[in-house]
Amino acid sequence: MKMPRSTPLKYLIPLLTVALAISSALSAESADLKIGAMLCLSGECAEWGANSLRGIELAIAETNQNGGVLGRKLKLVVEDSHDDVPSRAVSAFRKLNEDRGIHYLVGPTWTVGAMPMAPLIAASKEIVVISPSVGVKEFNESAPNILNTWPHDDKATIQLAQYAISQGWRRAAIFGSQDPFVKVQSDAFQAEFTKLGGLITTRVEPLPSSRDLKAEALRVRASTPDVIFFSNYQVDVFAKELQRINCQVPRLSILMEKERVKAAQGALENTIFALYAEPTAAFKDAFRLRYRQEPGITADTAYDAVMLFVRALRDVGRDDAPMVAARLHTLKDFRGASGIFSVDSKGAVDKLPVLWAVHGLDYRKLEASR
Protein backbone atom coordinates (compact mmCIF):
# COMPACT_ATOMS: atom_id res chain seq x y z
CA MET A 1 0.00 0.00 0.00
CA LYS A 2 1.28 3.41 -0.91
CA MET A 3 1.64 5.80 2.06
CA PRO A 4 0.36 9.38 1.60
CA ARG A 5 3.05 11.85 1.01
CA SER A 6 3.75 14.14 3.98
CA THR A 7 3.06 17.85 3.72
CA PRO A 8 6.23 19.64 2.63
CA LEU A 9 8.02 21.47 5.46
CA LYS A 10 8.05 24.69 3.47
CA TYR A 11 4.22 24.79 3.76
CA LEU A 12 4.11 23.82 7.42
CA ILE A 13 6.39 26.61 8.64
CA PRO A 14 4.15 29.51 7.48
CA LEU A 15 1.09 27.72 8.87
CA LEU A 16 2.78 27.23 12.22
CA THR A 17 3.92 30.86 12.25
CA VAL A 18 0.36 32.09 11.66
CA ALA A 19 -1.01 29.73 14.31
CA LEU A 20 1.54 30.91 16.86
CA ALA A 21 0.81 34.55 16.06
CA ILE A 22 -2.92 34.01 16.53
CA SER A 23 -2.32 32.09 19.76
CA SER A 24 -0.02 34.84 21.04
CA ALA A 25 -2.54 37.54 20.18
CA LEU A 26 -5.36 35.67 21.90
CA SER A 27 -3.16 35.09 24.93
CA ALA A 28 -2.25 38.78 25.11
CA GLU A 29 -5.90 39.76 24.89
CA SER A 30 -6.92 37.40 27.68
CA ALA A 31 -3.97 38.26 29.96
CA ASP A 32 -4.37 40.62 32.89
CA LEU A 33 -4.06 44.31 32.08
CA LYS A 34 -1.39 45.67 34.41
CA ILE A 35 -1.65 48.95 36.27
CA GLY A 36 1.63 50.16 37.74
CA ALA A 37 1.76 52.21 40.93
CA MET A 38 4.86 54.17 41.96
CA LEU A 39 3.92 55.57 45.34
CA CYS A 40 5.78 56.84 48.38
CA LEU A 41 5.31 54.07 50.95
CA SER A 42 8.22 55.04 53.20
CA GLY A 43 9.71 58.30 54.41
CA GLU A 44 8.02 61.67 54.99
CA CYS A 45 5.41 61.14 52.26
CA ALA A 46 4.34 57.63 53.30
CA GLU A 47 0.91 58.70 54.58
CA TRP A 48 0.05 60.14 51.18
CA GLY A 49 1.32 57.08 49.32
CA ALA A 50 -0.48 54.60 51.58
CA ASN A 51 -3.75 56.49 51.15
CA SER A 52 -3.29 56.47 47.37
CA LEU A 53 -2.59 52.74 47.36
CA ARG A 54 -5.87 52.01 49.13
CA GLY A 55 -7.76 54.14 46.61
CA ILE A 56 -6.10 52.32 43.71
CA GLU A 57 -6.84 48.90 45.21
CA LEU A 58 -10.50 49.83 45.66
CA ALA A 59 -10.82 51.06 42.06
CA ILE A 60 -9.21 47.89 40.70
CA ALA A 61 -11.40 45.64 42.87
CA GLU A 62 -14.58 47.39 41.73
CA THR A 63 -13.51 47.31 38.08
CA ASN A 64 -12.72 43.60 38.21
CA GLN A 65 -16.02 42.85 39.96
CA ASN A 66 -17.73 44.54 37.02
CA GLY A 67 -15.98 42.45 34.38
CA GLY A 68 -12.67 44.27 34.01
CA VAL A 69 -11.66 46.28 30.95
CA LEU A 70 -11.74 45.09 27.34
CA GLY A 71 -12.44 41.58 28.61
CA ARG A 72 -9.35 41.62 30.86
CA LYS A 73 -8.89 41.85 34.61
CA LEU A 74 -6.76 44.61 36.07
CA LYS A 75 -3.61 43.58 37.95
CA LEU A 76 -1.71 45.95 40.24
CA VAL A 77 2.10 46.14 40.30
CA VAL A 78 3.50 48.38 43.07
CA GLU A 79 6.88 50.02 43.64
CA ASP A 80 7.83 52.25 46.58
CA SER A 81 8.98 55.52 45.01
CA HIS A 82 10.20 57.01 48.33
CA ASP A 83 9.69 60.43 46.72
CA ASP A 84 11.69 62.46 49.22
CA VAL A 85 14.79 60.72 47.79
CA PRO A 86 14.74 61.57 44.04
CA SER A 87 17.14 58.79 43.01
CA ARG A 88 14.86 56.18 44.56
CA ALA A 89 11.85 57.67 42.82
CA VAL A 90 13.62 57.41 39.46
CA SER A 91 14.61 53.80 40.22
CA ALA A 92 10.99 52.91 40.97
CA PHE A 93 9.88 54.32 37.62
CA ARG A 94 12.64 52.53 35.73
CA LYS A 95 11.74 49.21 37.32
CA LEU A 96 8.09 49.52 36.32
CA ASN A 97 9.02 50.78 32.87
CA GLU A 98 11.14 47.66 32.29
CA ASP A 99 7.94 45.58 32.46
CA ARG A 100 6.71 45.76 28.86
CA GLY A 101 3.25 44.72 30.02
CA ILE A 102 2.75 47.95 31.97
CA HIS A 103 1.48 50.92 29.97
CA TYR A 104 -0.55 52.76 32.62
CA LEU A 105 0.95 54.07 35.86
CA VAL A 106 -0.45 55.91 38.87
CA GLY A 107 2.01 58.14 40.75
CA PRO A 108 4.36 59.49 41.86
CA THR A 109 3.37 61.01 45.20
CA TRP A 110 5.42 64.17 45.72
CA THR A 111 6.98 66.78 43.45
CA VAL A 112 10.56 66.23 44.63
CA GLY A 113 10.43 62.69 43.23
CA ALA A 114 8.22 63.55 40.27
CA MET A 115 10.30 66.19 38.54
CA PRO A 116 13.41 64.01 37.94
CA MET A 117 11.08 61.38 36.47
CA ALA A 118 9.34 63.75 34.07
CA PRO A 119 11.90 63.64 31.21
CA LEU A 120 12.11 59.84 31.49
CA ILE A 121 8.33 59.52 31.30
CA ALA A 122 8.23 61.93 28.36
CA ALA A 123 10.70 59.74 26.48
CA SER A 124 8.62 56.60 27.11
CA LYS A 125 5.92 56.90 24.47
CA GLU A 126 4.18 53.61 25.32
CA ILE A 127 3.20 54.58 28.86
CA VAL A 128 0.77 57.06 30.40
CA VAL A 129 1.22 58.42 33.93
CA ILE A 130 -1.41 60.02 36.16
CA SER A 131 -0.32 61.44 39.51
CA PRO A 132 -2.88 61.62 42.32
CA SER A 133 -0.97 64.21 44.32
CA VAL A 134 1.72 66.17 42.44
CA GLY A 135 0.37 69.69 42.54
CA VAL A 136 2.64 71.59 40.15
CA LYS A 137 2.01 72.35 36.48
CA GLU A 138 5.66 71.76 35.58
CA PHE A 139 5.02 68.02 35.96
CA ASN A 140 1.92 67.44 33.85
CA GLU A 141 2.88 70.08 31.30
CA SER A 142 6.23 68.44 30.57
CA ALA A 143 4.70 65.81 28.23
CA PRO A 144 1.32 64.76 26.78
CA ASN A 145 1.56 61.35 28.49
CA ILE A 146 1.66 62.92 31.99
CA LEU A 147 -1.50 64.00 33.82
CA ASN A 148 -2.61 64.97 37.34
CA THR A 149 -5.83 64.31 39.25
CA TRP A 150 -4.60 66.68 41.98
CA PRO A 151 -5.03 70.37 41.07
CA HIS A 152 -2.15 72.81 40.86
CA ASP A 153 -1.56 73.87 44.45
CA ASP A 154 -0.41 77.37 43.60
CA LYS A 155 -4.08 78.25 43.01
CA ALA A 156 -4.87 77.25 46.59
CA THR A 157 -1.82 79.15 47.81
CA ILE A 158 -3.01 82.28 46.02
CA GLN A 159 -6.40 81.89 47.71
CA LEU A 160 -4.66 81.70 51.10
CA ALA A 161 -2.81 84.94 50.37
CA GLN A 162 -6.10 86.60 49.41
CA TYR A 163 -7.70 85.29 52.60
CA ALA A 164 -4.86 86.77 54.67
CA ILE A 165 -5.38 90.21 53.16
CA SER A 166 -9.16 89.92 53.67
CA GLN A 167 -8.50 89.37 57.39
CA GLY A 168 -6.48 92.56 57.63
CA TRP A 169 -3.14 90.76 57.94
CA ARG A 170 -0.59 92.92 56.14
CA ARG A 171 2.70 91.47 57.41
CA ALA A 172 3.45 87.81 56.64
CA ALA A 173 6.38 85.52 57.40
CA ILE A 174 6.97 82.46 55.22
CA PHE A 175 8.18 79.15 56.60
CA GLY A 176 9.34 77.29 53.49
CA SER A 177 12.21 75.02 52.51
CA GLN A 178 14.52 74.23 49.60
CA ASP A 179 12.14 71.56 48.28
CA PRO A 180 10.97 72.33 44.68
CA PHE A 181 7.25 72.04 45.47
CA VAL A 182 7.61 74.15 48.60
CA LYS A 183 9.50 76.87 46.70
CA VAL A 184 6.68 77.07 44.14
CA GLN A 185 4.15 77.61 46.93
CA SER A 186 6.32 80.14 48.77
CA ASP A 187 6.81 82.10 45.54
CA ALA A 188 3.08 82.03 44.76
CA PHE A 189 2.11 83.26 48.22
CA GLN A 190 4.72 86.01 48.22
CA ALA A 191 3.76 87.22 44.75
CA GLU A 192 0.03 87.40 45.49
CA PHE A 193 0.41 88.80 49.01
CA THR A 194 2.72 91.62 47.93
CA LYS A 195 0.60 92.33 44.85
CA LEU A 196 -2.32 92.98 47.18
CA GLY A 197 -0.27 95.37 49.31
CA GLY A 198 1.16 93.01 51.91
CA LEU A 199 4.74 92.85 53.17
CA ILE A 200 6.85 89.71 53.62
CA THR A 201 8.69 90.19 56.93
CA THR A 202 10.99 87.17 56.50
CA ARG A 203 11.25 83.96 54.49
CA VAL A 204 13.06 81.03 56.09
CA GLU A 205 14.04 78.06 53.91
CA PRO A 206 15.87 75.27 55.75
CA LEU A 207 16.72 71.93 54.16
CA PRO A 208 13.58 69.81 53.59
CA SER A 209 14.70 67.17 56.10
CA SER A 210 15.69 69.64 58.84
CA ARG A 211 13.84 69.10 62.12
CA ASP A 212 15.92 71.44 64.29
CA LEU A 213 14.00 74.63 63.60
CA LYS A 214 14.71 76.69 66.72
CA ALA A 215 16.68 79.38 64.86
CA GLU A 216 14.02 79.65 62.15
CA ALA A 217 11.24 80.04 64.73
CA LEU A 218 13.12 82.82 66.53
CA ARG A 219 13.76 84.61 63.24
CA VAL A 220 10.08 84.44 62.33
CA ARG A 221 8.99 85.77 65.74
CA ALA A 222 11.53 88.59 65.57
CA SER A 223 10.08 89.78 62.24
CA THR A 224 6.75 90.55 64.01
CA PRO A 225 4.37 89.18 61.37
CA ASP A 226 0.57 89.37 61.49
CA VAL A 227 0.38 85.87 60.01
CA ILE A 228 2.73 82.98 59.21
CA PHE A 229 2.42 80.96 56.00
CA PHE A 230 3.61 77.35 56.18
CA SER A 231 4.67 75.82 52.87
CA ASN A 232 7.11 73.39 54.52
CA TYR A 233 6.17 69.73 55.12
CA GLN A 234 7.46 69.99 58.71
CA VAL A 235 4.44 71.97 59.89
CA ASP A 236 4.07 69.92 63.07
CA VAL A 237 7.67 70.46 64.16
CA PHE A 238 7.64 74.18 63.39
CA ALA A 239 4.25 74.75 65.05
CA LYS A 240 5.52 73.12 68.25
CA GLU A 241 8.63 75.30 68.14
CA LEU A 242 6.49 78.44 67.74
CA GLN A 243 4.36 77.32 70.66
CA ARG A 244 7.48 76.76 72.78
CA ILE A 245 8.63 80.36 72.26
CA ASN A 246 5.08 81.68 72.77
CA CYS A 247 4.60 82.97 69.22
CA GLN A 248 0.79 83.13 69.01
CA VAL A 249 0.43 84.47 65.48
CA PRO A 250 -2.34 83.20 63.12
CA ARG A 251 -1.09 80.54 60.72
CA LEU A 252 -1.90 79.46 57.18
CA SER A 253 -0.69 76.25 55.54
CA ILE A 254 -0.80 74.76 52.06
CA LEU A 255 -0.35 71.25 53.46
CA MET A 256 -2.09 69.36 56.24
CA GLU A 257 -2.25 65.70 57.21
CA LYS A 258 -4.00 64.02 60.13
CA GLU A 259 -0.76 62.39 61.26
CA ARG A 260 0.99 65.76 61.48
CA VAL A 261 -1.95 67.27 63.36
CA LYS A 262 -1.66 64.44 65.87
CA ALA A 263 2.13 64.83 66.12
CA ALA A 264 1.78 68.58 66.74
CA GLN A 265 -0.06 67.87 70.01
CA GLY A 266 -2.36 70.86 69.69
CA ALA A 267 0.21 73.30 68.29
CA LEU A 268 -1.59 73.38 64.91
CA GLU A 269 -5.00 74.22 66.41
CA ASN A 270 -6.90 76.75 64.24
CA THR A 271 -4.28 76.65 61.48
CA ILE A 272 -6.08 77.46 58.23
CA PHE A 273 -5.20 75.43 55.16
CA ALA A 274 -6.44 74.75 51.65
CA LEU A 275 -7.73 71.42 50.42
CA TYR A 276 -10.40 70.45 47.96
CA ALA A 277 -13.96 69.20 48.24
CA GLU A 278 -14.55 66.09 50.33
CA PRO A 279 -14.80 62.73 48.52
CA THR A 280 -18.28 61.71 47.41
CA ALA A 281 -20.54 59.89 49.86
CA ALA A 282 -20.56 56.79 47.64
CA PHE A 283 -16.78 56.61 47.64
CA LYS A 284 -16.55 57.10 51.40
CA ASP A 285 -19.10 54.34 51.97
CA ALA A 286 -17.23 51.91 49.69
CA PHE A 287 -13.90 52.81 51.29
CA ARG A 288 -15.23 52.28 54.83
CA LEU A 289 -16.73 48.94 53.83
CA ARG A 290 -13.41 47.69 52.46
CA TYR A 291 -10.93 49.20 54.94
CA ARG A 292 -12.99 49.94 58.09
CA GLN A 293 -11.63 53.49 58.18
CA GLU A 294 -12.15 56.90 56.62
CA PRO A 295 -10.36 57.66 53.33
CA GLY A 296 -7.22 59.74 53.86
CA ILE A 297 -5.78 62.47 51.67
CA THR A 298 -5.31 61.37 47.99
CA ALA A 299 -7.33 58.15 48.35
CA ASP A 300 -10.05 59.68 46.17
CA THR A 301 -7.72 61.20 43.57
CA ALA A 302 -5.81 57.91 43.24
CA TYR A 303 -9.10 56.04 42.79
CA ASP A 304 -10.00 58.55 40.09
CA ALA A 305 -6.67 58.02 38.32
CA VAL A 306 -7.48 54.33 37.82
CA MET A 307 -11.05 55.09 36.78
CA LEU A 308 -9.81 57.62 34.22
CA PHE A 309 -7.69 54.88 32.66
CA VAL A 310 -10.69 52.54 32.70
CA ARG A 311 -12.92 55.13 31.04
CA ALA A 312 -10.35 56.02 28.37
CA LEU A 313 -9.59 52.36 27.58
CA ARG A 314 -13.28 51.60 27.14
CA ASP A 315 -13.77 54.68 24.97
CA VAL A 316 -10.78 53.85 22.77
CA GLY A 317 -11.67 50.16 22.64
CA ARG A 318 -8.10 48.90 22.65
CA ASP A 319 -4.95 48.76 24.78
CA ASP A 320 -3.09 51.57 23.03
CA ALA A 321 -1.25 54.00 25.32
CA PRO A 322 -0.95 56.97 22.90
CA MET A 323 -4.65 56.72 22.02
CA VAL A 324 -5.57 56.46 25.70
CA ALA A 325 -3.47 59.54 26.50
CA ALA A 326 -5.17 61.49 23.73
CA ARG A 327 -8.61 60.49 25.00
CA LEU A 328 -7.77 61.44 28.58
CA HIS A 329 -7.03 65.01 27.51
CA THR A 330 -10.56 65.40 26.17
CA LEU A 331 -12.57 64.03 29.11
CA LYS A 332 -15.14 66.52 30.39
CA ASP A 333 -17.42 66.47 33.44
CA PHE A 334 -15.96 63.20 34.71
CA ARG A 335 -17.85 61.99 37.78
CA GLY A 336 -15.13 60.81 40.11
CA ALA A 337 -14.66 60.04 43.77
CA SER A 338 -13.14 63.50 44.23
CA GLY A 339 -16.09 65.20 42.53
CA ILE A 340 -17.00 66.25 39.01
CA PHE A 341 -14.05 67.55 37.00
CA SER A 342 -12.67 67.93 33.49
CA VAL A 343 -9.17 67.29 32.14
CA ASP A 344 -7.64 70.08 30.09
CA SER A 345 -5.38 69.87 27.04
CA LYS A 346 -2.28 69.93 29.26
CA GLY A 347 -3.36 67.12 31.58
CA ALA A 348 -4.54 69.20 34.54
CA VAL A 349 -7.89 69.04 36.34
CA ASP A 350 -10.17 71.92 37.31
CA LYS A 351 -11.04 71.86 41.01
CA LEU A 352 -11.67 74.78 43.33
CA PRO A 353 -9.79 74.90 46.64
CA VAL A 354 -11.71 74.98 49.92
CA LEU A 355 -10.41 76.54 53.14
CA TRP A 356 -10.39 74.48 56.33
CA ALA A 357 -9.12 74.92 59.88
CA VAL A 358 -7.58 72.39 62.24
CA HIS A 359 -10.03 71.57 65.02
CA GLY A 360 -8.76 69.08 67.58
CA LEU A 361 -7.60 66.04 65.63
CA ASP A 362 -9.95 66.84 62.75
CA TYR A 363 -10.79 69.68 60.38
CA ARG A 364 -13.69 72.10 60.06
CA LYS A 365 -14.64 73.91 56.88
CA LEU A 366 -14.50 77.70 57.02
CA GLU A 367 -17.89 79.23 56.37
CA ALA A 368 -16.32 82.09 54.44
CA SER A 369 -14.55 79.83 51.90
CA ARG A 370 -16.03 79.45 48.45
β-strand amount: 15-25%
- State the major sheet: 7 strands, mixed
CATH architecture of the largest domain: 3-Layer(aba) Sandwich
As for the number of domains, it is 2
Q: Could you give the distance between the termini?
A: 94 Å
Please give the radius of gyration in angstroms.
Answer: 24 Å
Give me the strand/helix succession.
HEHEHEHEHEHEHEHEHEHEHHHEEEE
How confident is the prediction overall: mean pLDDT?
92
Number of strands: 14
Across the major sheet, the strand order is 7-6-8-9-10-13-14
In the CATH hierarchy, the third-tier topology of the largest domain is known as Rossmann fold
Low-confidence segments, given as residue ranges, are 1-5, 21-29
In CATH terms, the superfamily of the largest domain is Response regulator
Give the overall shape, derived from the CA principal axes. Answer: elongated
Q: Please report the first level of CATH classification, the CATH class of the largest domain.
A: Alpha Beta
- Percent of residues in helices: 40-55%
